[in-house]
Amino acid sequence: MWEQLKGSVGPQVWELFLCPMATRLSEHIGGKNVMGGKGASGSRFTAWWDSYAKWETTAGSYGINTAIETVGGCPNESWWPAAPNPKSAFWFDPVDGAACASIPVMVDCLAFRTWGEDKWGAPPYEDAYPAVWCGTCINRHDGGVNCVFLDWSVRKVGLKELWTLKWHKQFNTAGIWTKAGGVQPEDWPAWMRRFKDY
């Protein structure tokens, strides 16, 4: 299947969608997805894929921050039910240059889309999906994930640092899962306690 995907657009293009640590497609095949096709979530070291009835199969190992994605200019509220007011959480207007450096655009992920909420806790174990954080809190890069920000900078983000990024306009970057918000080392699941605190 992977060779078939690469052949449709060329390997040089597909490589852009894949983290070098997660180039192999997930072998798990889920049931029908919301678009009537099939697909599979990825893992720390495998890529997600989706096959739709009307479109070609897509695959990758990064996810787009849903708060910067629009459909026809309006957010599809079913994609982020946890947001208290989805339309006011989105980044529709121009953003101040300095603020852009803290707004995630694309990040290592187990699915095509991701979303963060400041009150959500961490996954209880590694590769827990879709329990929380939409598959972004994964130990793919030695305690971190790679992230592209709205100022188009790219850097590694510590897993606990995910709670300090501005995922959407209503996200509290000093929330209960940050040092500023009072989180304690023992509050984190055992698999995350050794990682750097933020």
Q: Can you describe what's shown?
A:
This protein has helices at residues 2-9, 11-14, 86-89, 97-100; strands spanning 24-25, 38-40, 46-51, 58-60, 62-65, 104-108, 113-114, 144-149, 154-158. With 198 residues, it is of the alpha+beta class. The protein has two domains: 2-60, no CATH class; 63-192, no CATH class. The strands form two sheets. A five-stranded mixed β-sheet has the order 7-5-6-8-9, with no helix packed on it. Strands 1, 2, 3 and 4 form a four-stranded mixed β-sheet that branches. A hairpin with a 6-residue loop joins strand 3 and strand 4. Mean pLDDT is 78; it is low at 6-12.
Helix content: 10-25%
End-to-end separation: 41 Å
Low-confidence stretches: 6-12
Return the domain count.
2
| Rg measurement, Å | 17 Å
Overall average pLDDT: 78
> What fraction of residues sit in β-strands?
15-25%
Identify the strand order in the major beta sheet: 7-5-6-8-9
- Spatial shape: globular
Class inferred from helices and paired strands: alpha+beta
Number of helices: 4
Main sheet record: 5 strands, mixed
What is the string of helix and strand elements?
HHEEEEEHHEEEE
Count of individual beta strands: 9
